[in-house]
Amino acid sequence: MKIENDHLYILIEGAPTSPEIAFIKRAIDKLITQTFLPNINYEVIEIGGSGNFNSIGQLIYYKSQLHQSIPVIFITDRDFRTEEKINAHFIKDKLVKRVYWKRHEWENFLLEETETIASLFNQISTKKTGEKKTYRKDTGNNLTKLQLEQWLIQYFQNSIMTELFECLKFQFRENADFRLTLDQIESLSLPDMRTFFEQQVVNKASEAQNRILGLRNMLEDIITSQDFRWESYINNPHELDFQKAKIFFRGKEALKNLHTKAYQYLKVEHLEYDRFCKELILPELAKNTNSLIVQELGEMLQPYFQQAASLTGIE
Q: What helix, strand, coil percent values describe the chain, rounded to 5?
């Protein structure tokens, strides 16, 4: 990999074919065109798994003159991390600076674009194998922003316990500081979750030489967290805070569910989820600097682009 002295390097977790890679490059170019970001030399590098970012970062630091003064940036998902965990990473990482999306995943920002998603779905044309191009079947159905948000709310209300378990699995893995993970739970009720987790800590403690017994209160800490009122929403799903769910729940799963609902409702053909993201919604949003995800990306990168511009004499 050739490292240029005057380039700002941005690391992204994922494969070269990941839909967000091309989107991030397009969005940065658009932000530069509209002068929100200075016109510096930059490169976005896909690093595969997050375990690779420090080794690639070391290589860049060794060869890049610009990165003697500016940290190499690693854009990553927030996942189920708390603010305390995010701040701890900023202190801990001395080589590559993690820059977190402010929501669970980058897909969470797309959940705010229901009007654009509805418009794109309503324009989809289809093509059957061996036949001429045809337009969407006339079902008399048209998607609206309201319809998509109703589906999204229903999905979130039905997913609270699943999301709590995923949050618990992530926090357990992070806090145990081992390659340990929770077994799959069969019953998604809060009483069963409490019993299950207590037994899991005891079982896994033997694998970890009893070093994780202090995690017994983790489930209660999560449930009573000020960030998200898990127990209240489990007992009263209809009181779920829709906006908070769009921030803290897993955006990719929610977006996939929304895609499936729209796909079936309109009876469109040949629109797989990956193609929907890569060829439709992300290119559309990359052109619009008012879209939430482009604004977020610009705010994340602006300090580093500004520093690079000052050091390279572009300002």
A: 55, 10, 35
